[in-house]
């Protein structure tokens, strides 16, 4: 009995340690997102956003923080909806002209784009520059 | 593998059990936290694109909602434009009623699909949380229009109006006001209020009818359009010479051509969460700093409580039922 309990506890601890190491590792080499190029201050502007290192088939939300500091889900303006392929990569085009037309961003400034899961838990983030 | 014996084994057992117990307690405490409100990011649905009035005033309000909700939760905006508001309203209406999804509406206009039997929602069943403001509309005429007065408009063979569609309060209000005043109107559809107002400035249409805050630039600053009346009980300070529609003999239109910006949650929101929301909403919309920002943006703050909100929804539905035939005629 003592022997069985010892083995069981050792195995449980080993599993827990492995799980923690896995989490730490996945955080260190976790998903990445990038905006391919700066956005021009044009009312019809659009830009490409790319992600890598995601779970295959994973659907994500993109949150944009405008100059007022409020985060908004820009899913309605993305084509296609960001979903990782079998290699964990995705790419989408964001029609962001509305934020420019309505003066919700300033020229020469960078703003945050966060990638989240369905419950808006952050996964990765990057910044997008609005240039002349 | 070496087997641990004696006291060492006991120590190992205790340590292991302590670790497992700690993990279990942490898991349980997280589960307990999730049963309270708010326990995660809140989604605030806006059925229009960013930068319009509904988006702007919602963005203005969100920091104050956070301030008064327990735990200062994160609130993100989810713009869901299209489908004449129905896409966004359905996102809110069909969400899980746990307090983590709310949405802004445009009343009375959003009651129209329901009255016409085209909606998959019943606004009477939504959980109403509060109201942001009361929007005053103004009718303005093009400088290039042949018509300058109400009498001339009533006698005109046809008046053209720049509208966005009947799903908007501006479009709906124009139809109802013209019908009530006996003005023969042709509606010229435009993709947005900016385009419709530009059409008025160019002289492509005679009449535009929009919120004072939207028209202010054209009627007060540049004077590209002539304001002829306002849909309110009292005159607007910035245009004191412009009469109210009540002064012109149509006091009933004050309650017909208006727009409120109420916020709702899905039907079936538990009472404790509803009370938490309504309390936070009331405090946020009465916050002097927030109201100062609203007034600076030419808005008229109008916080509302449960009974007023329920009455407002009922009145909107009854009003549109009264004008259902007129609306159907103009939709053809």
Written account of the structure:
With 132 residues, chain A is of the alpha+beta class. Chain A is built from 2 helices and 9 strands. The model of chain A has no long low-confidence stretch (mean pLDDT 89). By secondary structure, chain B is an alpha/beta fold. Chain B folds into 2 domains: 168 residues, D-Maltodextrin-Binding Protein, domain 2 (3-Layer(aba) Sandwich), CATH 3.40.190.150; 118 residues, D-Maltodextrin-Binding Protein, domain 2 (3-Layer(aba) Sandwich). In chain B, helix 2 links the parallel strand 1 and strand 2. Chain B is elongated and about 105 Å long. The chains are: A alpha+beta (132), B alpha/beta (332). The interface between A and B is medium-sized, with 30 and 28 residues. Strand 5 of chain A pairs parallel with strand 2 of chain B.
- How does the major sheet of chain B shape up? 6 strands, mixed
Q: Looking at the structure, what is the overall shape of chain A?
A: elongated
How many structural domains are formed by the residues of chain B? 2
Poorly predicted segments of chain B:
27-34
Q: How many E-type strands of chain B?
A: 11
Query: What's the helix count of chain B?
Result: 12
Flag low-confidence runs of chain A: none
CATH superfamily caption of the largest domain in chain A? Macroglobulin (MG2) domain
Q: Strand portion of chain A, in percent?
A: 25-35%
Gap between N and C termini of chain A:
74 Å
User: Do you know the CATH topology of the largest domain in chain B?
Assistant: D-Maltodextrin-Binding Protein, domain 2
Oligomeric state of the chains present here? heterodimer
Structural class of chain B: alpha/beta
The CATH homologous superfamily of the largest domain in chain B corresponds to: Bordetella uptake gene, domain 1
Structural class of chain A: alpha+beta
């Amino acid at each position: 009995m003592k022997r069985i309990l010892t083995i069981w506890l050792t195995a449980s601890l080993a599993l827990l340690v492995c799980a923690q190491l896995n989490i730490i590792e996945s955080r260190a080499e976790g998903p990445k997102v990038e905006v391919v190029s700066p956005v021009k201050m044009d009312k019809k502007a659009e830009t490409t956003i790319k992600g890598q290192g995601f779970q295959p088939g994973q659907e994500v939300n993109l949150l944009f923080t405008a100059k007022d500091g409020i985060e908004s889900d820009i899913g309605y303006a993305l084509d296609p909806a960001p979903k990782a392929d079998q290699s964990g990569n995705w790419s989408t085009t964001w029609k962001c002209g509305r934020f420019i037309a309505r003066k919700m961003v300033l020229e020469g400034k960078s703003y945050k784009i966060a990638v989240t899961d369905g419950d808006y838990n952050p996964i990765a983030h990057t910044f997008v520059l609005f240039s002349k | 593998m070496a087997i641990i014996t004696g006291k060492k084994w006991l120590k190992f057992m205790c340590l292991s059990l302590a670790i497992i117990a700690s993990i279990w307690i942490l898991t349980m405490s997280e589960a307990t936290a999730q049963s309270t409100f708010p326990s995660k990011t809140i989604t605030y649905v806006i059925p229009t694109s960013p930068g319009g009035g509904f988006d702007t005033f919602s963005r203005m309000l969100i920091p104050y909602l956070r301030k008064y909700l327990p735990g200062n939760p994160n609130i993100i905006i989810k713009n869901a434009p299209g489908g004449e508001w129905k896409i966004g309203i359905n996102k809110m209406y069909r969400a899980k009623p746990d307090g983590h999804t709310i949405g802004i509406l445009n009343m009375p206009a959003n009651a129209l699909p329901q009255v016409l039997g085209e909606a998959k929602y019943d606004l009477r069943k939504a959980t109403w949380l509060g109201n942001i403001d009361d929007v005053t509309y103004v009718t303005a005429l093009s400088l290039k229009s042949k018509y300058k007065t109400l009498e001339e408009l009533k006698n005109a063979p046809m008046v053209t109006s720049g509208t966005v569609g009947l799903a908007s309060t501006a479009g709906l209000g124009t139809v109802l006001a013209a019908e009530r005043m006996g003005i023969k109107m042709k509606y010229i559809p435009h993709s947005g209020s900016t385009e419709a107002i530009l059409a008025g400035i160019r002289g492509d249409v005679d009449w535009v009818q929009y919120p004072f805050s939207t028209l202010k630039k054209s009627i007060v600053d540049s004077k590209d359009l002539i304001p002829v009346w306002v849909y309110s009980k009292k005159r607007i300070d910035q245009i004191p010479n412009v009469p109210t529609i009540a002064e012109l003999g149509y006091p009933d239109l004050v309650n017909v051509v208006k727009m409120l910006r109420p916020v709702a949650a899905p039907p079936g929101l538990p009472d404790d969460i509803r009370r938490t929301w309504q309390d936070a909403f009331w405090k946020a919309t009465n916050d002097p700093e927030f109201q100062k920002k609203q007034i600076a943006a030419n808005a008229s703050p109008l916080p509302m409580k449960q009974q007023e909100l329920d009455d407002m929804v009922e009145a909107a539905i009854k009003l549109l039922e009264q004008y259902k035939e007129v609306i159907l005629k103009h939709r053809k």
